[in-house]
Design goal:
Bound molecules: nicotinamide-adenine-dinucleotide
Shape: globular
Number of helices: 18
Number of strands: 17
Distance between the termini: 43 Å
């Protein structure tokens, strides 16, 4: 999985070890990478390797039931949690930003986020339109590792996507891999073609090379109100993630090196204009939501604009009902590298969950439209719900383990997920924004989640801090390798019960009825229930 993260088809910038999210890395340096591989090659089944911010730091005799790799990235105490301290550590080779799935070795390219983006837009279409985005215009920015999924997720929901991206290479990459259909010569052509597709009610996506703040501002000035507006530029990082207006990529890189303070100030100015345009268009009727890049938080904090929060975050608006039921971005990769293994597992998913129409539709569309990157992989949102004894995730994991055992798939399958899952993340501007009981910033939950995964027998467990507040979150991840053995089955049953279960517990404790219902119907013991 580490090598898969660093596969050039998967990572955004392999040479600099950047996997996604502007600076999200899987390892701290190439030396650290070589050292990790050397350790992994002769690691015994009852040993555990410790990885601290992307560097191997220790190896101990433990137990075959516990993780073989424990990873902790970018975690500091609150008095040290500043961008300056973090950047200084990073420059001195002492720390790295693991983002979410980069530092936990669970990134599988844009194919990993596509289903989440599809689900979010499907839920939005249910809430605001007639169940899909037919004849609707979605305007957004950013075609990076995550953002690159947006155009395809829009067209899968039958809508039209108009996306601004400053970096030409990113646009080309999304077009080559089938995530975006066309590239416009300029903004006029982009708007004209997008509007023609809206009128014709045709699913369509078009990218234009320009600053996203300028695109959204232009739409407002020309009085073109998109049906939906969001953004996935890396606004969470004002220096290395987001481009200020008025510069090409190359010019921005020069400014960054020559005068980083000026860069940052201009970045915040552009972000403020960006958020202003979103707010204006929202007032004129667009459905606006923040897609987890903290544009609102940056503008509120650095430009004193609390009104930036007048549009909601995606998790609150469109994901929470699912998270309450322990549902989230469950994913697996075929270590054989054979696409046929994923198709075989697709059949197993359909067979196990015959009643889940939307899941079946998703698999059919994914088979047709989502290109594999690196190891063939699939994401399906599954949750806690039990069939009387086993959760959805456990049922599927056990079936996959059986397929490995009976040689119906060619090699072990590794199962993991995104960190933005039901019980594994605290992030007050994303997954835990506006919690019912005010516990938006309580980070006991992801720590408990990581410990619980360790106690349940996951093969890799990771925990991520906030990287100088740039992530404003703490999160945990897990991997289980299904190698067809009885031990793998026992571990999988426990991990894929306790992991989504901790999400139900987290939301039940916060008072969400959906979570309390799920706990009741799936028989999760809640010691606080009688309160
Ligand atoms: P990335 O760094 O790989 O891509 C960002 C892209 O935005 C780059 O291609 C860059 O060229 C472009 N860009 C930056 N500033 C721009 C500007 N002003 N105008 C036009 N283009 C600009 O990052 P990513 O992995 O795609 O993630 C994007 C953001 O979305 C991040 O902030 C990430 O944290 C957030 N996100 C969060 C979630 C989540 O909460 N689960 C999900 C998806 C994305």
């Amino acid at each position: 999985m580490l090598n898969n993260n660093l596969d050039p088809e998967v990572a955004e910038d392999v040479e600099n070890l950047v996997i996604y999210g502007g600076t999200g890395r899987a390892v701290r340096s190439w030396d650290a990478y070589e050292n990790i591989l050397a350790e992994l090659r002769d690691l015994e089944v009852d040993e555990t390797l410790l990885v601290q911010s992307g560097k191997p730091v220790g190896r101990f005799r433990t137990h075959e039931w516990v993780p073989q790799v424990l990873i902790v990235n970018c975690t500091v105490t609150s008095d040290y949690d500043t961008m300056e301290y973090y950047r200084d550590l990073e420059q001195h080779g002492k720390m790295m930003n693991g983002m979410y799935t980069a530092g936990s070795w669970a990134y599988i390219g844009t194919q990993g986020i596509i289903q989440g983006t599809y689900e979010v837009l499907a839920e939005l279409a249910d809430q605001h339109f007639d169940g899909d985005l037919e004849g609707k215009l979605v305007a957004t920015g950013g075609l990076g590792g995550m953002g690159g999924a947006q155009p395809l997720a829009v067209t899968m929901n039958r809508g039209v996507c108009l996306v601004a991206e400053l970096d030409e290479d990113r646009i080309e990459r999304r077009i080559e891999t089938g995530y975006c259909q066309e590239r416009a010569a300029d903004i006029d052509e982009a708007i004209e073609r997008a509007q023609a597709a809206v009128d014709a009610k045709e699913p369509y996506s078009i990218a234009v090379q320009m600053n996203a703040a300028d695109l959204i501002g232009e739409l407002r000035d020309r009085d073109i109100v998109p049906d939906v507006i969001t953004d996935q530029t890396s606004a969470h990082d004002e220096l290395e993630g987001y481009y200020p207006s008025g510069y090409t990529v190359k010019e921005a890189q020069e400014l960054r090196e020559e005068d980083s303070e000026r860069y940052v100030e201009q970045s915040f100015d552009t972000m403020e204009r960006h958020a202003d345009a979103i707010l204006d268009l929202q007032e004129r009727g667009a459905v606006a939501f923040d897609y987890g890049n903290d544009l609102r938080g940056q503008v509120a904090k650095h430009r004193g604009r609390e009104d930036a929060f007048d549009y909601p975050g995606f998790a609150v608006a469109y994901m929470r009902p699912k998270l309450c039921r322990g549902e989230g971005p469950f994913r697996w990769a075929a270590l054989s590298g054979n696409e046929a293994d994923i198709y075989r597992i697709d059949e197993a998913v359909k067979d196990l969950f015959p009643e889940k129409d939307q899941l079946h539709r998703w698999i059919d569309m994914a088979q047709e439209q989502v290109e594999f990157q690196g190891l063939p992989a699939r994401v399906c949102w599954l949750g806690y719900e039990t069939d009387g004894s086993l959760t959805e995730r456990a049922r599927l994991a056990l079936r996959m383990n059986d397929l490995v055992r009976s040689d119906e798939v060619d090699a072990p399958v590794v199962v993991t997920r995104d960190q933005l899952d039901a019980g594994s993340v605290t992030s007050a501007t994303r997954a835990t924004e506006n919690m019912k009981d005010g516990t938006d910033g309580v980070a006991d939950w992801p720590v408990l989640n990581a410990l619980l995964n360790t106690a349940s027998g996951a093969d890799i467990v990771s925990f991520h801090g906030s990287a100088g507040k740039s992530l404003k979150s703490m999160s945990a991840n897990n991997h289980v390798v299904l190698d067809g053995t009885d031990l793998a089955a026992e571990k999988a049953e426990r991990v894929f019960t306790s992991d989504p279960g901790s999400g139900v517990v987290r939301h039940a404790e916060a008072g969400y009825e959906d979570a309390l219902d799920e706990a009741e119907s799936s028989d999760i013991h809640l010691p606080f229930r009688d309160e």
